[in-house]
Design a protein that fits this description.
Largest sheet: 2 strands, antiparallel
Shape: globular
Strand order of the largest sheet: 1-2
Number of strands: 2
Order of helices and strands: HHHHHHEEHHHH
Distance between the termini: 41 Å
Radius of gyration: 19 Å
Helix content: over 70%
Amino acid sequence: MLKYRLILGPIMIALLLGVLWLDQWAASEDHARAGLVILLLLVLPGIRFASRELAVLLRAKGVATGFRVLFLAGAAGSVGVYASVQNDIDIAGPTAMLVVSLGIGALMLGVLIQCKGRNTEGTMVAGAAAVFAFVYLGLMPGTLLAIRAEHSAWVLAAALLVTKSCDIGAYFTGRAIGKNKLIPWLSPGKTWEGLGGGVALAAVVSLATLMPLADLHWAYALLVGAVLAVIGQLGDLFASMLKRDAAVKDSGSSIPGFGGVLDVIDSPLLAGPVAYWLLAMAG
């Protein structure tokens, strides 16, 4: 597993940096909206694959919602965020109502698809699953678009790097000296020592990247790194709850050494909204 992580990890990072470079280039050509479109086109395929994995988890719990409904709900959430951060939309009321309306649409879509065979059984659960996808796979990754709308693509890259560096630090520190289990009933592989190593590495990475790129004070940069590290780990634990509830180890097997797409993005999903507010407060 470590071999695959060492090979595929840098490849995924290089692909992400390539897309963000293209995004930044488009924005530098006085086409700021084109840059956001490029980033949205990266987010949407991720939502598609994550929706398929979430559908598998839901089916394991007896929820028969199809992945297309989950994908449409998740895509609606991210598109709603995309529309709300456009420079020419500066009226809070209509912008908020757009996102609210899309959320209502996701709810109704889940319910209507479930009862299309003139059967009302499971409609409430199907509607709840669609709203869950709207928030978890839509609004939460959509916050990455909100960060990009107010900062450079490199600030976004740094925030993602800080969050994922905690995973790296926790993994290697835990393997080296980890003894005390963090939450053995939920994630038996995590240790307090690993968490400490992950937080320390994330703080250092934040100091090296976010401090110069986002013009942060060094002390605040350390704080941002530590907070994103902890929130990212909470995102990982949240995904672990879903997988344990469905009685599966990984959300999928599409990425050797990592599991599925959800296993890769679980920490940035929760860290994204927090990163947005931390950067906003710094300004």
